[in-house]
């Protein structure tokens, strides 16, 4: 995803900065990074959402119930054969309420980062012509 984003960025700014005497460090931090911010934000939000909802990774690596992630904790609380209710037995309504609360951080991140997500898909660089 980032490779395609970087391929769309114009190199005219870099060349102009080199002509003006900027070194590679200044070109990177003052020109390239501000242009890359929307793409990096989109990737960061995607990584957060996939990590927050990850189930298989923690299921493989974690063995103590104290260190369970939210997804594993909800699975352990679920009644029936699938979850086994290893931590405690709760009703289905309580489990659905807990799942609804687990989604709140993802919704909040999306709500506050929606503008960056949209600007990450369409980048205006300021070059005309």
Automatic annotation (TrEMBL):
Native source organism of the sequence: Cohnella ginsengisoli
Taxon lineage: Bacteria, Bacillati, Bacillota, Bacilli, Bacillales
Membrane-topology annotation of the record: Multi-pass membrane protein
Family to which this protein belongs: Belongs to the binding-protein-dependent transport system permease family.
Entry's Gene Ontology cellular component terms: plasma membrane
Alphabetical keyword list: Cell membrane, Membrane, Transmembrane, Transmembrane helix, Transport
Residue ranges occupied by any ABC transmembrane type-1 domain in the UniProt entry: 1-113
The keyword Transferase is annotated on this UniProt entry: no
Pfam family, one: BPD_transp_1
Family annotation (InterPro entries): MetI-like, MetI-like_sf
Stated name of the protein: Carbohydrate ABC transporter permease
């Amino acid at each position: 995803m980032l490779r395609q984003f970087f391929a769309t960025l114009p190199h005219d700014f870099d060349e102009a900065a080199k002509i003006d005497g900027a070194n590679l460090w200044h070109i990177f931090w003052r020109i390239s990074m501000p242009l890359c911010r929307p793409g990096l934000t989109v990737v960061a939000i995607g990584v957060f959402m996939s990590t927050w909802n990850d189930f298989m990774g923690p299921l493989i690596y974690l063995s103590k119930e104290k260190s369970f992630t939210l997804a594993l904790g909800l699975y352990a609380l679920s009644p029936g054969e699938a979850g086994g209710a290893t931590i405690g037995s709760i009703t289905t309504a309580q489990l659905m309420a807990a799942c609804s609360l687990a989604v709140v951080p993802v919704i909040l991140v999306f709500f506050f980062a929606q503008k960056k997500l949209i600007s990450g898909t369409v980048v205006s660089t300021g070059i005309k012509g």
